[in-house]
Amino acid sequence: MTEEPRPTLEAVAAHAGVSRATVSRVVNGDPGVREVLAERVRHAVDELGYVPNRAARSLVTRRHDAVAVVIAEPETRVFADPFFALQLRGISKELTTRDVQLVLLLTEGRDDHERVGRYLAGGHVDGALVFSLHLDDPLPGIIRRAGVPTVFGGRPGWPQGAPGETGTSYVDCDNRGGAREAVRHLVGLGRSRVAHITGPLDQTSAVDRCDGYRDVLADVDPRLIAEGDFTPAGGERAMRELLHRVPELDAVFAANDLSASGALRVLRERGRRVPDDVAVVGFDDMLPVAEQADPPLTTVRQDIEEMGALMARMLLRGRDGEDVASGPAHVVLPTALVRRASA
């Protein structure tokens, strides 16, 4: 059985009764075609099932209709953490509405960094969305040398005035303010020994949340702070460490919901009632984690999916030459405390 040939640009032009050049302009989004002709072309495209050749189209438009999403984490972490699924969903929805392909690139070691750099420099995508950076990560420099427009998820961690600090676009949430609200809530409940399980302190989100905790408890006993890694196992390790150091602690602010879920497991194992003996607050409000925790988790909500969508919109606006304010776009979304049974 032979396949029928795919409709060509010439076939669409003949069907619509216009020139090949007119079809090309309509397919490539050129606004300089009368609406009546453009409508005829669109009808012909639909009726014939014409699919534009992306390679040929990119030669005309100098666009590839593809965006790289670069996550500076190994795949075992990315596919186990619902945070990344929510952010990718927001990005994917936004790109789909603009008929732009998502290319997922993960990094785990130096070879991966070089591979990502080669791919981006090769002119395969219109830009890059990058998140989960660590402070010593070489990715920002590699991406800058590749010369592709970039929007970062989260505030980049360059020192003020460092190369790359200026001219950077990013989307973040109010990590520090959200942490302050969480700790004030615990203090308002009458808790006097409030511990903190941090995220990895080579990431700005974890640093900002720790700073927010210290804003409220400026003279806190350093034994009440234990470093985690944004994972349930990290939350468990940190919670055991905290109970060993300060067994009389009566509250915990965990830097994300996954860490909080690990902390809850350890408290349950040790016979500590939540919230009667120890109140617990997380950060993120990832519903599969927060609502299914035992007890359901009080947490700070950030709109993870909207952050992803906003990153994609910001990048595409720049690509399409739409009206944007001059200079880099820095967007910090608000957070809100969501009260459930754990605190």
Structural class: alpha/beta
Net shape: elongated
Query: What kind of assembly state do the chains in view correspond to?
Result: single chain
Helical residue percent band: 40-55%
Strand order of the largest sheet: 2-1-3-4-5-11
Please tag this protein with its features:
14 helices; six-stranded mixed beta sheet; elongated; alpha/beta; 343 residues
Give a nutshell description of this structure:
The chain contains 14 helices and 12 strands.
How would you sum up this structure, described in words?
With 343 residues, this protein is α/β, with parallel strands linked by helices. The chain is 45% helix and 16% strand. It is built from 14 helices and twelve strands. The protein has helices at 9-16, 20-27, 35-48, 54-61, 75-78, 82-97, 110-121, 139-146, 175-188, 204-216, 232-245, 257-269, 287-290, 304-320, and strands spanning 66-71, 101-106, 128-131, 150-153, 169-173, 194-198, 225-227, 251-254, 279-284, 298-301, 330-333, 336-338. Strands 2-1-3-4-5-11 form a six-stranded parallel sheet, with helices on both faces. It is elongated and about 80 Å long.
Task: Explain the layout of strands and helices.
Layout: H1 9-16, H2 20-27, H3 35-48, H4 54-61, E1 66-71, H5 75-78, H6 82-97, E2 101-106, H7 110-121, E3 128-131, H8 139-146, E4 150-153, E5 169-173, H9 175-188, E6 194-198, H10 204-216, E7 225-227, H11 232-245, E8 251-254, H12 257-269, E9 279-284, H13 287-290, E10 298-301, H14 304-320, E11 330-333, E12 336-338
Parallel strand pairs: 1-2, 1-3, 3-4, 4-5, 5-11, 6-7, 6-8, 8-9, 9-10
Antiparallel strand pairs: 10-12
